[in-house]
Specification:
5 strands, 5-stranded parallel β-sheet, 8 helices, globular
Length: 166
């Protein structure tokens, strides 16, 4: 069964850590499509936003390639902080994946600030504040359309990972 996992959260909330942990635990058939990773691959700098159209073109194209692996777990690792964006992603992929799950990170602001500082490339505090203030929790509509919606509000990601691997 093919599964698309859409991550939603501000920078520093643990999305990439979650992706890497899931990949280590599942070991096979896990494909991470990361906006930061694509910037680094395409532009040699994950902070470079000069070619966003190209980055997002690859971001939306790669999952369609991975769906040929019938055991694929494809993880979309980007902020996706609002409902409209997450629903658009669902609509883009609903006909090609067997299951689409949403994992939303809603951690305490102080914890996110601390984790952001620990990143290889921290987001400036004013930009992080903008993301934090713009973040939308999953809506009723999202809870109805996604197969599963998980809310992570602590650093304990293991129960969600185990549930996704069932």
């Amino acid at each position: 069964m093919t599964k698309l996992i859409v991550l939603s959260g501000v920078p520093g909330s643990g999305k990439s850590y979650f992706s890497q942990t899931l990949k280590k635990m599942r070991r096979k058939h896990v494909y991470i499509v990361s906006s930061d990773g694509l910037r680094k691959e395409i532009l040699n700098d994950q902070k470079d936003v000069s070619a966003e159209d190209l980055v997002w073109k690859f971001f939306y194209s790669l999952p369609k390639l991975y769906v040929d692996d019938k055991d694929a777990f494809v993880i979309l690792d980007a902020t996706h902080i609002n409902s409209n964006k997450r629903i658009a992603i669902y609509n883009e992929f609903k006909d090609i994946f067997d299951e689409i799950d949403l994992v939303a990170f809603a951690l305490d602001k102080d914890l996110v600030r601390h984790q952001n500082i620990e990143r290889d490339f921290p987001v400036p505090i004013d930009v992080l504040e903008m993301f934090y203030e713009s973040y939308e929790a999953p809506t009723k509509e999202e809870k109805e359309i996604f197969n599963n919606v998980y809310l992570i509000d602590t650093n304990d990601i293991v129960p969600v990972i185990y549930d996704l691997m069932k």
